Amino acid sequence: MSKDSLPYGSTHISPRAIATIAYNATMESYGVVGLASKNLLDGIANVLVKDPTHGIDIHFDTNRLDIDLYIIIEYGTRIKSVAASVAKTVQYHVEKAVGLPVNTVNVHVQGLRINEEDAHG
Amino acid sequence: MADAGQKAREGAEYAGGPVGGRIFIEWMSAGLAWLKTNCDIVNSLNVFPVPDGDTGTNMLLTMQAAVFEAGQTEGEDLSDFVQAFAQGALMGARGNSGVILSQIWRGFARAVEGHAELTVPVLAKAFSEARDTAYRGVVRPVEGTILTVAKDMAETAEKFSGETDDLLHFLEHVVEAANASVQRTPDLLPVLKDAGVVDSGGKGLFYIFDGALRHLRGESLDEADFEVRSLVDMDFESVMEEVEEGQDYEVIVDFKPNGGLDLQKFYSDLEAMGTSIQVGEGSGMYRMHIHVPTENRYLPIDYAMEIGTITKVHIENLMAQMDEIEARAKDHFKLAVVEPGQIAAVTVSPGRGISKVFASLGVHAIVGGGQTMNPSTKEIVEAFEDMTADRIIVLPNNKNIIMAAEAAQELTVKKLAVIPSRTIPQGLAAMLSFDPDGDFEQIVAAMQRAISEVETGEITTAVRSVEIDGVRVEEGQIIALHNGKLVLAAGDLLEGCLAFLEHADADEFELITMFYGEDVTREEADEVAGKIQERYPDLEIEVQDGGQSHYQFIFSIE
């Protein structure tokens, strides 16, 4: 989708490749405990997903790269700070790997995970 | 209890006695104070994931919110205070490191719940629970960060909890473990090792508990910890240029201390003699650097002889040096001044010589930077923000700087065009098409075209053994990059230059410009140029003082 003309041919970077980079960055981001299917109708079984294309939307439109993340956050963390830092981390890693400026990273907090420790105490 | 509290406030040594909530928060206030004192150090360590330099500030604001919230608590009960403290940290959590810190306190508070006083077993359990809670907040924990430091502290706490019931003694072990853990972070996280720093968040966590410990020992929290750098990192250039009046001599002494060196004492002894103190350490050798008044010029040497064996002494009269610096400044180039309505050109340059060439081509501002010192977006914006021009062209001249330059558009209302120049010769070629009075779009297009009309060669020494793009390189070999891509490795500089020119089909071009770097003398550069001329008698060869670091030569082939 992203296309560069180079002397030896051209490079195509698929949204899925970008999603994989974003997925890995999200998983290393503190406070994020999972990605959620953006469509809650998919059901609870799908809430925590392993496939990077679920829970991450990549929109690429002539040199404008926008990323939507649908995440689950650890209960008891400050959501605003976690969301800001995951957006920053994803932007940094995608820009570093792909070499394209990221226009926006939108973070959608789809749910909170409550630990057993919190549930009991 | 009131007595014990009073004692702690005065910073007297901790003499035991029950520790309720109010006293514990005093310890944490001391941790906050110590973190604040050393905030700049923590900020300066920040490299990952985004080098903002605000880890210290974020942790500080988080701790402030925690201490403030705890201060609203009534009574003496430990549990009540710590719950409020953790709640404050949670609400005030700023940035990534602040969020992790708030989770550490959340776990800590959970373990303390229901305990009216702090004891060694309670504190040990609190460290364990702090670690567990912190680790639960992330799917893939990155080791070599504040998480690792929290883990190592917990492990030490678990180990010593049965061995002592003395809180001070216990805390000493844990803080020592924190310090050791911080020092190990570069071994776990390569990005830290590459930058030559320890983890900032881990260091911040260490300062919090070290501050509490210092308070218990009655030590000062006002004077910043100082950094002992590695010998290679000591920046004498910048120190030298900040000469204070009365500090006429620069003294540098290399020595090996007899036995251990008490750094705190060493540092304060030096402070009594002079200013601009820097201390470097490398495999047991120390280097001290100090500026002293004339009458004190032998003091640092005598002092070093008392505490160790001197291997090298260097004394220089700074006044004479200053004269030299001023003389050099006279030789400065003049940048073009932009008139209202004109287009301004801003370039990034890695060295004086190259800056001079850019200046002669009419650039209006220069931002220092290159391969290993990429300027920030902010620095780029600052270079043109105060200019009278509202249309700006930026030449990044390095592929790692292009993005920072493009991001500058977000921070300014001025119209910005970034010419994606990846090398110095590309930037120079683009500048040849620049016209401050021309049509903006046309000039940008012409400059973009000009980039592809020049071939770039960069010759440098490999800093590690790698294999990239099928080229095998051993550390210390000379390598050549053609238009930014590694193409070959060679045994010596001349061989590397000749092999590169052959690779770039130099005989099909007309002009070669060689910019020699700061590590190469004019004579060496002329010698290499002579050999090149022998090989390519039909080409015109020009040798220029580039002054760039790292690259012995930058070739421009047209």
Name the descriptors.
heterodimer, A: 121 residues, alpha+beta, Alpha-Beta Plaits, 4-stranded mixed beta sheet, two-stranded antiparallel ribbon, 3 helices, elongated, B: 558 residues, alpha/beta, Serine Threonine Protein Phosphatase 5, Tetratricopeptide repeat, 5-stranded mixed beta sheet, 17 strands, disordered N terminus
Task: Kindly summarize this structure in a few lines.
The complex is a heterodimer of chains A (121) and B (558). By secondary structure, chain A is α+β, with helices and mostly antiparallel strands.
Query: Radius of gyration of chain B, rounded?
Result: 29 Å
Largest sheet of chain A: 4 strands, mixed
Fraction of residues in β-strands of chain B: 15-25%
Tally of individual domains of chain B: 4
**Percentage of residues assigned to helices of chain B:** 40-55%
Q: Which strand-content bin applies to the residues of chain A?
A: 35-45%
Radius of gyration of chain A: 16 Å
User: Distance between termini of chain A?
Assistant: 49 Å
- The tally of helices of chain B reads 22
